[in-house]
TrEMBL record:
FAD-dependent urate hydroxylase HpyO/Asp monooxygenase CreE-like FAD/NAD(P)-binding domain ranges (all copies): 6-188
UniProt-listed InterPro entries: FAD/NAD-bd_sf, HpyO/CreE_NAD-binding, L-asp_N-monooxygenase_NS-form
Alphabetical list of PANTHER family matching this protein: BLR0577 PROTEIN
Highest rank taxon of the organism: Bacteria
Protein name: FAD/NAD(P)-binding protein
Length: 641
């Protein structure tokens, strides 16, 4: 008997699921070893392995925001999951092995040269990551159990229907796949603009203005931006960084060191670039990635926010208020990572031994006078104390009468933040980052168990995810150096925090809370530099759109205690434990699953740092095993019969 599985989306998430399927098939489909086969169909219009985001066909200037040593697709002995652990090479291991005993030239001259120069702390190009992901796919396929066949379909899945329990995946070329289970792993789904964005498009078009709504920056038509003109940019996250790269280096500009090393850069214009005036709610770019290693080793985690604290909250059945009840533990855990690194890695800057501090730190709650007194007494330097308010709102307290006066003030804060993230004197930032990853996983357990109140999930959780992204998902330090070079040269200006945009007198106007009394910036071009907000209902993906129209899929709505809908997340509702798809009636489908950013289960990414008990790898394992149990010849079904 042959079983069949379709994975819609063959990027890193789809490949990660394939790896976990292969790991658990001997356990859950023992009949495979005795004559039964499994067909796995990977469906994606983009190259399998890399997928859309990491495909080779994009600008060679675009880089990852992770170091080579911090990227892996494989489980290791830190990953706690039900399936077998199958270690494999990280990006850095792969690069070293290819250099030592392979042939880098098979990648082509540009990537071969990059591979030969890459180090553990290099931020590789996305094209080189594409090569790694393609290799991972080949490695995963080669390591599958006997009887498992993989079929790659370089096309789009346009519809999902069923005939009895058989799932029918209709492809763009008119053919159809009849399978036993389907996993939707398409990643970020493009969506039609919101009503507000459509209204903005209509107004802008009627006035002859240009508006680029939210989308993948690499797919935007930036040719509509003319050299020399002022462009208002809303958003300063990773999409903004991509925009900066493509608009400046991508148009022939270049950066040169101003002296030995590359600590300070100057921008040499090409003459084809515009001038960007950028803002956002925070008013500053995401914090730079750290460029150093821990001196004290990984902090012992979890310490203050682990199963002992989370399990009782889940058992009580909620509702839990994240900021009121859990944030003090979250903050204490993140600060524990910071201070573990400070005390053991920089003992000359503290007044207590680590052993004494750890005992005294365990007693008071975060934010209490007792904790504040301990930190002030034990850590004399203010820069050595973690400051959550400054991390969350970097421009707090900053005001200026006009745009010109504001620029050096913002540049100074960005430069100081960069210094702390690249100078090994400030490795506590990395200790906090490692602890944040642990906290993210524990908060995910609360969310997955449905323990948070609707109001807390609608507002508190959104704040936490935004804060996590700004601290943990920032660009490499060299990108921040480039941004500062552009700012010093006058090609990028900062609007400040609390940005607003309007159309008045036939033109875009923009300002901020930081520039309360200043005249607005005006332009004929506005770019929303961010991904579209999730919306399964507005998606342009035909398969998901069809499921939504028929009621076979639904979006997660966050509801207050009185039944009031607080917010529609736009994300597909799934069973948190295994990604099983939930329809409009609330029924869980036994053979349909979904995983990734288009679902209500938030994961840190499709690949991860080695040695971190990755939530993403653990969830891949849980989904893969649920898929296998749903098959007609699974061990679970056989035992039930």
């Amino acid at each position: 008997m042959t079983s069949a599985i379709a994975i819609v989306g063959a990027g890193p998430r789809g490949v990660g699921l394939l790896e976990r399927l292969g790991a658990s098939i001997p356990d859950l489909l023992p009949a495979t070893c005795c004559g039964s086969d499994v067909d796995v169909h990977l469906i994606d219009p983009y190259p399998a392995g890399a997928g859309r985001i990491w495909r080779h066909e994009q600008s060679p200037l675009l880089a990852m925001n992770s170091m080579a040593a911090d990227v892996t697709m494989f489980t290791d002995d830190t990953v706690v999951c039900d399936g077998p652990i199958r270690p494999g090479p990280s990006f850095w291991d792969w690069a070293q092995e290819l250099r030592a005993s392979g042939d880098p030239d098979v990648l082509g001259p540009e990537l071969a040269a990059e591979l030969r120069a890459v180090t553990a702390s290099t931020f590789p190009s996305r094209r080189l990551q594409s090569a790694y992901l393609s290799w991972v796919l080949d490695e995963v396929i080669a390591g599958l159990p006997p009887g498992v066949r993989v079929h790659i379909h370089r096309t789009r899945a346009v519809e999902l229907t069923e005939e009895g329990e058989t799932q029918v995946v209709h492809l763009e070329d008119g053919s159809a796949l009849h399978v036993d289970a389907v996993v939707l792993a398409s990643g970020h789904l493009d969506a039609t603009p919101t009503d507000e964005e459509l209204a903005l498009v209509a107004r802008a078009t009627g006035l002859g203005l240009r508006y680029l709504p939210p989308e993948q920056t690499t797919d935007s038509d930036l040719s509509v931006i003319e050299p020399g003109e002022t462009v208002i940019v809303r958003g300063m996250g990773l999409a903004f960084v991509d925009l900066m790269v493509l608009i400046f280096e991508g148009r022939g500009g270049r950066f040169e060191p101003t002296g030995p090393g590359e600590d300070t850069l100057r921008y040499i214009p090409s003459g084809a670039e515009p001038r960007l005036v950028a803002g956002s709610p925070r008013g500053a770019p995401y914090h730079s990635k750290t460029h150093y290693e821990l001196r004290a080793g990984r902090p012992p985690l979890p310490r203050f926010l682990g199963p002992a604290e989370i399990d009782p909250l889940i058992a009580e059945g909620g509702p839990v208020e994240l900021l009121a009840q859990v944030w003090p533990l979250m903050a204490k855990e993140i600060a524990w990572g910071w201070y573990h690194e400070l005390f053991l890695g920089h003992p000359d800057r503290v007044r207590l031994s680590w052993d004494e501090f750890a005992v005294r730190y365990a007693e008071p709650a975060w934010g209490t006078p007792e904790m504040d007194e301990l930190l002030a007494a034990a850590v004399p330097g203010p820069v050595d104390r973690i400051d959550f308010a400054a991390l969350d709102r970097p421009l707090d307290g900053l005001h200026a009468p006009d745009l010109a006066t504001l620029q050096p003030l913002v540049q100074e804060r960005i430069a100081e933040d960069l210094r702390q993230h690249v100078d090994p004197a400030h490795t506590p930032h990395l200790g906090a980052f490692v602890a944040m990853l642990s906290v993210y996983g524990q908060v995910g357990r609360l969310v997955g168990a449905g323990a948070l109140s609707g109001r807390s999930q609608a507002f508190d959780l959104s704040w936490w995810q935004g804060f996590f992204s700004s601290v943990a998902s920032g660009p490499p330090g060299f990108r921040v150096r480039q941004l500062l070079a552009l700012a010093r040269a006058g090609f990028v200006q900062f609007l400040g925090a609390g940005m607003w945009v309007d159309i008045a007198d036939g033109i875009f106007h923009a300002g901020s809370a930081t520039l309360q009394d200043a005249p607005p910036v005006t332009s004929t071009v506005l770019v929303d530099a961010r991904l579209p907000h999730a919306s399964a209902a507005r998606t342009v993906d035909p398969l998901v759109a069809g499921l939504m129209r028929s009621g076979a899929a639904s979006e997660l709505e966050l509801v207050d205690d009185d039944g009031t809908v607080l917010r529609n997340t736009g994300q597909l509702r799934v069973r948190p434990s295994d990604g099983a798809l939930i329809d409009a009636s609330g029924a869980v489908h036994p053979h349909r699953f979904a995983v990734g950013p288009h679902t209500a289960v938030k994961l840190a990414g499709a690949f991860t740092r080695p040695g971190m008990n990755s939530q993403s790898l653990r969830y891949n394992d849980a989904v893969a095993r649920a898929v296998l149990r749903s098959l007609p010849n699974s061990a679970a079904e056989a035992s039930a019969a």
